Task: structure prediction
Amino acid sequence: MTDDPRHIEDGVSSLAPARGMAPAPFHGPIGMLAELTHRCPLGCPYCSNPLALDPRESELDTETWARVFREAAALNVLQVHLSGGEPGARRDLVDITAAAHSSGLYTNLITSAVGITPEMLTKLADAGLDHVQISIQDSEPASADHIAGYQGAFARKKELAAAVVRLKIPLTVNVVVHRANLDRIAAMVELAIRYGASRVEIAHVQYYGWALRNREALLPTAGQTERAIEAVEQLRNAHRGVIVIDAVTPDYYARFPKPCVGGWGRRSLNVTPAGKVLPCHAAESIPGLEFWSVRDHSLADIWANSPAFNAFRGTAWMKEPCRNCARRDIDFGGCRCQAFAITGDTSAADPVCHLSSHHDDVVALRTRQRDVPYSYRVHQRTKDKVSGLTP
Amino acid sequence: MSNAAPAVPHDSKPRLPRGVRLVHNEAHGGWVLLAPERMFKADATAAEILKRCTGEATLDAIVDDLTRSFAAPRERILADVSALLGGLAEKKLLEL
Result:
């Protein structure tokens, strides 16, 4: 026995890049986000999907996903996150889940709950599903449905959460917080407890993709943000042992950047509905990157050799102040997508860092709130385009 | 996080809940505890403890078994095992 009772080191979640990263112990990728589809009944204005959504016709089929899971397991990926869009929009979700499970991967379903019936959930559990994450938009039903852009979404979440707990599958409730709901963190955590969740993830909006488009409408005030940070601490104490609360400092209020995806091309990968493999789910927002597809290459080949994965791997690409920074192997220069979105330079330090010459731009953004309607994500169907407005 | 993890009763039968799995992976250098959207590296000692958390053995039985396998005083092993298991229970990674 050693003196340290904590024989276990915290690992990394590829879905919450800001929440710490594993120091030495892992080698190569450990998590894969499988975006099974971009189709989703909800329209959340902070959606992390790209503005240009993959159409249904381009989606990978069941067999290709099964091969990708086998290749991921061979690369020593440990967890796969079945996500979207809404993965329930895939009619073959049970087969996809079974394929992931039989490859030896820990399977996590990330769902809005709309599109997954309790009957389907039972089949998913039989197929080997390990964990379910359900997103909620607010603790107030009317506000929740408004944010989701979908009437009745709130009620569906309660129903699916109950089914998850009945099947004894562990449940995480994910809450994306922003100006409209940030004052209700306590109520949302209590809702997660009532659902029977063992974990709640409080994620401040990260401003890429649809969220960047809606930034003025989503951005919380400074006062709200500070109260929320305090509230999380109080809630952790109040509910210790009842529910695990994972929360991170919102980007624009941090002093150091997050170690995004545990370092570019280091711990995680993301497969889009059409099969492109990205180092992070927002990487397509960075211009000039060449992504390879699982249709043309094996996952191992893509991981090792694709230009996009090598673009910001390691530290050689860094400029000052990152290049000689003592934290360069801790936060890896922060988020490339955010560096580009705010500074226009893909190799700049993440301007969230107080050492960045663009940090003042981030500070200025804290006060850019404006009460404008949400721009909801829309998924244009090819059919509509053909039959409709195009001349 | 406070250091005061919940006490583990002597007759409790700890087990990994559904959704928490201990796996061995050579490339990652040994034992890994897979949990909801998290994973934890388990060293050889932690793995020995966790392998015994089957839901059948009591804490006392686990500690007795470890005392036979490891050259350390029982009280010391009990303290280490309780600290590990209590901490994991607080993180919802173990059922007591």
In short: The interface with chain A takes residues 2, 6, 17-21, 23, 25, 27-29, 32-34, 36-43, 45-46, 49, 70, 72, 76-77, 79-80, 83-84, 87-92 of chain B (CB under 8 Å). The first strand of chain B starts at residue 21 and ends at 25. Helices of chain B lie at 44-51, 59-69, 74-90. Chain B has a mean pLDDT of 89.
